[in-house]
Amino acid sequence: MIVAPSLLSADFATLKQQVAAVEKAGADYLHLDIMDGHFVPNITFGAQLVRDLRPHSKLIFDVHLMVEHPDEYFADFCRAGADIITVHVEACNHLHRTVQNIKQLGIKAGVALNPATPLSGIHYVLDEVDMVLLMTVNPGFGGQKFIDAVMPKVERLKQLTANLERNVDIQVDGGINENTAPGAVAAGANILVAGSFVFGAEEVSKPIEILRQL
Ligand SMILES: O=C(CO)[C@@H](O)[C@H](O)COP(=O)(O)O
Ligand SMILES: [Fe+2]
């Protein structure tokens, strides 16, 4: 599995070292949660942090935009060094255009769905997107409980993407740990985001290895 540690659960006073630790431990992506205090009831960090971390890591920078008006921000995150930018379906008035505009910058585009959002909103962009992120918690905070009811949505998405000629990654995000990840993988996910499971461990290498082996 592709493992994407979420920096949200790291100690923000030592970010550079913690990014280096997950990279050394075999992580594939670095998941960067951008929250604006409007789309979600929490505020994290902006493009400047992505820009500052970029020279220190070869990890794929996977930017999860939990902001209103994502069209106003994604280009800045691309310039800052994002490799993948994911926008929320619930925040986009013209999702197809937003996805196309992200891809025109030469990076990958993802679309994210909250747990209560049905797959129907993305049927007509599946031909365009590189990744679909299915939230397995309500976005806004790390350390929440995995919502099992999202699993049939993962299965359905897997069926839909299997019919496409190109690869579309399925990312799950929220409450992923050694107990919940196997079910998500069985349902069809191939990218596992994990915040508290990775950064809450004494050694980040252990949870990363557990997820990688799935
Ligand atoms: O996008 C989000 C939360 O909104 C996530 O990326 C969290 O950061 C995941 O944290 P854990 O649930 O794994 O602790
Ligand atoms: Fe996230």
From TrEMBL:
- Gene3D superfamilies under this entry? Aldolase class I
- Reaction(s) catalyzed by this protein? D-ribulose 5-phosphate = D-xylulose 5-phosphate
Cellular component (GO) terms are: cytoplasm
What's the Enzyme Commission number for this chain? 5.1.3.1
Q: Where are the transmembrane segments?
A: none
Q: Does the keyword Isomerase apply?
A: yes
Pfam assignment, any one: Ribul_P_3_epim
Catalytic residues at 33, 173
| Metabolic or biological pathway, per its Swiss-Prot or TrEMBL entry | Carbohydrate degradation
- Residues noted as binding substrate in the record, renumbered to the chain: 6, 64, 140-143, 173-175, 195-196
Domain of life, per UniProt, equals: Bacteria
Which residues bind a divalent metal cation per the record?
31, 33, 64, 173
Q: Name the UniProt key words of this record, in alphabetical order.
A: Carbohydrate metabolism, Cobalt, Isomerase, Manganese, Metal-binding, Zinc
**InterPro entries from the xrefs?**
Aldolase_TIM, Ribul_P_3_epim, Ribul_P_3_epim-like, RibuloseP-bd_barrel
Q: One GO molecular-function annotation for this sequence?
A: metal ion binding
Q: How is the cofactor bound?
A: Binds 1 divalent metal cation per subunit.
Q: Name one GO biological process term.
A: pentose catabolic process
Q: Which cofactor does it need?
A: Mn(2+); a divalent metal cation; Fe(2+); Co(2+)
Q: What is stated as this protein's family in its record? A: Belongs to the ribulose-phosphate 3-epimerase family.
| Described purpose of this protein according to its UniProt entry | Catalyzes the reversible epimerization of D-ribulose 5-phosphate to D-xylulose 5-phosphate.
Its recorded name reads: Ribulose-phosphate 3-epimerase
